[in-house]
UniProtKB/TrEMBL annotation, chain A:
Example GO BP: protein targeting
Localization per Swiss-Prot or TrEMBL: Cell membrane
Membrane topology, record value: Multi-pass membrane protein
A family per Pfam: SecD_SecF_C
Family: Belongs to the SecD/SecF family. SecD subfamily.
Gene Ontology molecular function: protein-transporting ATPase activity
GO cellular component entries: plasma membrane
Protein's UniProt name: Protein translocase subunit SecD
Name of the encoding gene: secD
Domain Protein export membrane protein SecD/SecF C-terminal residue range list: 435-601
Keywords annotated in UniProt: Cell membrane, Membrane, Protein transport, Translocation, Transmembrane, Transmembrane helix, Transport
InterPro entries: SecD, SecD-TM, SecD/SecF_arch_bac, SecD/SecF_CS, SecD_1st, SecD_SecF_C, SecD_SecF_C_bact, SecDF_P1_head
TrEMBL record, chain B:
Gene name in the database record: secF
Chief place of localization: membrane
Cell membrane keyword on record: yes
Name of the protein in its database record: Protein-export membrane protein SecF
Segments traversing the membrane: 12-36, 133-153, 160-182, 188-209, 240-258, 264-292
A Pfam short name: Sec_GG
Keywords: Cell membrane, Membrane, Protein transport, Translocation, Transmembrane, Transmembrane helix, Transport
A single cellular component GO annotation: plasma membrane
Lineage: superkingdom: Bacteria
Quaternary structure annotation from Swiss-Prot or TrEMBL: Forms a complex with SecD. Part of the essential Sec protein translocation apparatus which comprises SecA, SecYEG and auxiliary proteins SecDF-YajC and YidC.
Membrane topology qualifier: Multi-pass membrane protein
Entry's Gene Ontology molecular function annotations: protein-transporting ATPase activity
Length: 616, 310
């Protein structure tokens, strides 16, 4: 019996077919537009809250498809995006700042499939709509900020140790400390070596000078931390924005990928992610003359700033608290109806603020709003980035009484600015400015269209191939088409199991794989015809056809696989998706073209002892 | 049904000189197109901004242009895409504007003029990112070539590997040449298509070579050119049918896949058409000239694993 598969082989093929059918199934159900409510920080979302949310939605008159409450979060599914957006806006207003309300596309997979671990493929941004940013962390700025920080810290340390110095100034990448005498230098060197392990100390010709520079290790550390801290901050900000399933990953040494599926308001997303806004609180220098400073004689302990209206103002060099020490911030109105940000400081910040306000009641304090604006210019083909640190004094107020942990800041340009600033302060500031070097936004309607395009390409292509194969190869054409169908099923199942991200190029990959997979069956069928032509018996022809074609199939597929792997290794984003589909598609087609079609042939012809003709 | 009932072997090798001359001419033309016209690189590689918007009635392109001019923008292009309601705006990198914000500004201005305008997509690629993509694409190309050559050298013999890869590069250069000549936009998906063709087009050469190897074993008293003729003739039907199938799929993409897959399908089409030609009429003559002989393959035993498979 040449053309007979043992029972185990048939069972195996059937089992593979059923398993792949189950795992490919979830992709047919699509997604429900949903709203997800989850608690922030230490908040809890208990059953009572969940019930409240449910009744609020019902009151709004939106038709809820399903309402789920588990693991401290609520998910409400809707039939259309209008209801979804309506409810999301409503809940955002009602729930206040302690909960994150996010739009989500929740897979509508039935429970029994879910229990089996069958999940739909994750749709890429080009299919579901959303934004993709590639951001570059400005390492030079991160290093420069660290230098500035050291500069201040060194000054502070010397002052606290009562070592007198003439000047601490930056010279390029180094800090020069000028002291009064050689003895002081020895004392200062000892102190700095002990307190600042990250600085390398070198002596100069002059008896009373020390040069400090950050060690290589320190610089490396700073760069690593800058990216790490930026990722944390971006993640906080994205959570604040209320985005479901965001992707925030480091890419390469200094880049961060941020993907926000389903985000509609890209302008706001960009603003929130990209800004490096923060606040500083400083005392106003009331002892010196501002006019003198404007003319260029800024006193040593102060810095010249400008208010929003353009008036110059002198502020103390020393910062009372910075944005980093803010643990919570919310926006609202003060008693006079002006937009305000209500701020809560951490322990260190609170004690410092308490001390300063106690010593300075009746004196003015200023709030400085700091923002890094990055402009990229291309000069002679070279990318030149100019970074401006824009510092504005947004409010000057007299300290009325002692406050420490909680207080408010006014002087903002409107409720919107207050809201954004509060969000930024809550989420922490970026360790270093970021630059958006790539942005791709896909509107939701385009996403829907892209899905349709991908599916149409596949369906119409498959149908024409089916038609041709059956006309040209008759029954063997039917076998081939069934094998091809199993191949698509298997491919989708594997991709779903891997939880691969499906993109439009990925769908093109499926179509291309189908087109290429048929090659194996054509090879086999042609070979069988050839063997029949040279006078072999039908059984021998089938046997020889499969046998001989296999070596060829293996060879020709491996070369395509090599191309696919190279694409996968070096490709980015959607192209990677295409490559993955190509590689897996080749593997599944080897299985289906050879085993599945052979099983069918054996099933139809294998048991016939006397075989005169083949329908090929 | 059968299209190819060829009784006698077609003497392909006799025309080897002619076919390779034709190839050489197209190849040179492609190189010329590439060097004089260059590829019309898409946004992915050059960097820049591309905004697609949709109006709820046929868009007035002049109005859009006017709005852009009012913003002191230059060197932009405004065109319909897919339908009269969809407008594609392209802006080059502006040295004096923060590019990441430019798209928002443009959209805001368009909305001022017509509130019904909907954003469909924005793509902004920094020049550096584009450059990197270009480099990694080139690297991928080399990797594929090296990988395929190594595989074929092991599986067959170095002459086969060289012949197949030359034929293959010839396809790739012709695709690129066509894109340069017609100034079709060369985007990231097109590059992916080109690389896929690189793997796919080798198939033909491999199928023919497989047959050549088989013939070396079977047709003891035949000359090498005749043997190659026989291999090509025998695999002819398979080559054409297979490609026809793949082409059906590619055509489906071309017609139904929309703007995004249009050029991808175009690249594949050229690759498929020339793939047939080169595998038959370029790879084999080269193989012949490289002086392939029976001994080259006799040394290697057929690997055992192949015999035990279904």
């Amino acid at each position: 019996m040449q053309n007979h598969y043992p029972l185990w082989k048939n069972i195996l093929i059937l089992a593979v077919f059923f398993v792949s059918a189950i795992y490919a199934l979830p992709n047919l159900y699509g997604n429900d537009p949903s709203v997800q409510v989850s608690p922030q920080h230490s908040e809890k979302l208990d059953l009572e809250q969940a019930n409240k949310i449910e009744s609020a939605i019902k009151a709004a008159g939106a038709a809820v498809k399903a309402f789920e409450y588990k693991d401290d979060r609520v998910l409400a599914r809707f039939n259309n995006t209008d209801d979804q957006i309506k409810v999301a806006d409503l809940l955002r207003d009602q729930m206040g700042g302690n909960y994150t309300v996010a739009l989500n596309l929740a897979p509508a997979t039935p429970a029994w499939l879910d229990a089996l671990g069958a999940k739909a493929m994750y749709l890429g941004l080009d299919l579901r709509g959303g934004v993709h940013f590639l951001m570059e962390v400005d390492m030079d700025a991160a290093v420069k900020q660290a230098e500035d920080r050291y500069n201040d810290d060194v000054r502070q340390a010397l002052r606290e140790a009562k070592i007198r110095y003439q000047a601490v100034s930056k010279e390029g990448v180094r800090i020069k400390v000028k002291l009064n005498s050689a003895d002081d230098r020895a004392a200062a060197a000892g102190l700095l070596a002990r307190d600042f392990p990250g600085l390398d100390i070198t002596d100069t010709e002059a008896q009373d000078e020390i040069l400090l520079a950050m060690s290589e290790k320190e610089v490396r550390e700073i760069k690593k931390n800058a990216v790490g801290q930026n990722i944390t901050t971006l993640r906080n900000r994205v959570n604040e924005l209320g985005v479901a399933e965001p992707v925030i990953q480091q890419q390469g040494e200094n880049r961060i990928v941020v993907q926000l599926p389903g985000v509609q308001d890209t302008a706001r997303a960009k603003e929130i992610l990209g800004t490096t806004a923060t606040l500083e609180y400083r005392l106003v220098d009331t002892e010196h003359d501002v006019q003198n400073a404007v003319e260029g004689h800024v006193p040593a302990g102060s810095r010249l700033y400008y208010e929003k209206n353009g008036n110059p103002i002198l502020l103390d060099r020393r910062i009372i608290v910075t944005g980093d020490q803010i643990v919570d911030a919310s926006s609202g109105m003060d008693q006079d109806g002006r937009p305000a940000v209500f701020i809560t400081l951490n322990g260190a910040g609170a004690s410092k603020m308490g001390k300063v306000t106690q010593d300075n009641v009746g004196k003015p304090m200023a709030v400085v709003f700091i923002e890094y604006k990055v402009d990229t210019k291309v000069v002679d083909g070279q990318k030149v980035r100019t970074k401006q640190k824009v510092e504005k004094v947004i409010s000057v107020a007299t300290i009325q009484g002692v406050f420490s942990k909680r207080f408010q800041t006014t002087g903002l340009d409107g409720a919107g600015e207050a809201r954004n600033l509060a969000l930024l302060l809550r989420a922490g500031s970026l360790a270093a400015p970021v630059d958006i070097v790539e942005e791709r936004t896909v509107g939701p309607s385009l996403g829907q269209e892209n899905i349709a395009k991908g599916i149409n390409s596949n369906v119409y292509g498959f149908l024409t191939i089916t038609l041709f194969m059956i006309v040209y190869y008759r029954l063997f054409g039917v076998f081939s088409v069934v094998a091809l169908g199993v191949n698509v099923l298997l491919l989708v199942a594997v991709l779903s199991l891997l939880q691969a991200t499906l993109t439009l190029p990925g769908m093109a990959g499926i179509a291309l794989t189908v087109g290429m997979a048929i090659d194996a069956n054509v090879l086999i069928n042609e070979r069988i015809r050839e063997e029949l032509r040279i006078g072999m018996t039908p059984h021998a022809a089938i046997y020889a056809g499969y046998e001989r074609a296999f070596a060829t199939i293996l060879d020709s597929n491996i070369t395509t696989l090599i191309a696919g792997i190279a694409l996968f290794m070096l490709g980015s984003g959607p192209i990677r998706g295409f490559a993955l589909v190509l590689c897996i598609g080749i593997l599944t087609s080897m299985f289906s073209a050879v085993l599945v079609s052979r099983a069918l042939v054996n099933g139809v012809y294998g048991w016939r002892r006397k075989l005169d003709k083949l329908a090929i | 049904m059968e299209f190819f009932k060829i009784k006698r072997d077609i003497p392909f090798m006799r025309y080897g000189r002619v076919t390779t001359t034709i190839s050489l001419v197209t190849f040179i033309l492609a190189i010329l197109a590439l060097s004089f016209k260059g590829l019309n690189l898409g946004l992915d590689f050059t960097g820049g901004i591309q905004i697609e918007v949709r109006y709820d009635q046929p868009a007035n392109l002049e109005t859009v242009r006017k709005i852009l001019e009012d913003q002191k923008l230059t060197e932009f292009s405004v065109q319909n895409i897919g339908s009269v309601k969809n407008v594609l705006i392209r802006l080059p990198m502006k040295p004096e504007i923060n590019n990441a914000r430019l798209s928002e500004m443009v959209l805001a201005k368009l909305k001022e003029q017509d509130a019904g305008v909907v954003l469909r997509s924005v793509e902004f690629v920094g020049p550096q990112v584009g450059q990197e993509l270009f480099e990694s694409g080139g690297l991928a190309l080399m990797l594929v070539v090296a990988g395929i050559m190594a595989y074929l050298a092991v599986r067959f013999e170095w002459r086969f590997a060289l012949a197949a890869i030359i034929a293959n590069m010839h396809d790739i250069v012709i695709i690129l040449g066509m894109f340069a000549f017609f100034q079709w936009e060369f985007t990231l998906p097109v590059l992916a298509g080109v690389l896929a063709i690189l793997g796919y087009s080798v198939n033909e050469s491999v199928v023919v070579f497989d047959r050549v190897r088989e013939n070396f074993h079977l047709m003891r008293n035949t000359s090498v050119p005749d043997m190659i003729d026989n291999a090509i003739t025998a695999t002819m039907s398979r080559t054409v049918i297979t490609h026809f199938m793949t082409q059906l799929m590619v055509l489906a993409m071309f017609f139904f896949g929309g703007e995004a897959l249009h050029n991808f399908a175009l690249a594949l089409t050229i690759g498929i058409v020339f793939g047939i030609y080169s595998s038959v009429l370029v790879a084999s003559p080269i193989l012949l000239w490289l002086g392939v002989s029976r001994q080259d393959l006799m040394v290697k035993k057929e690997s055992v694993e192949i015999d035990n498979l279904p």
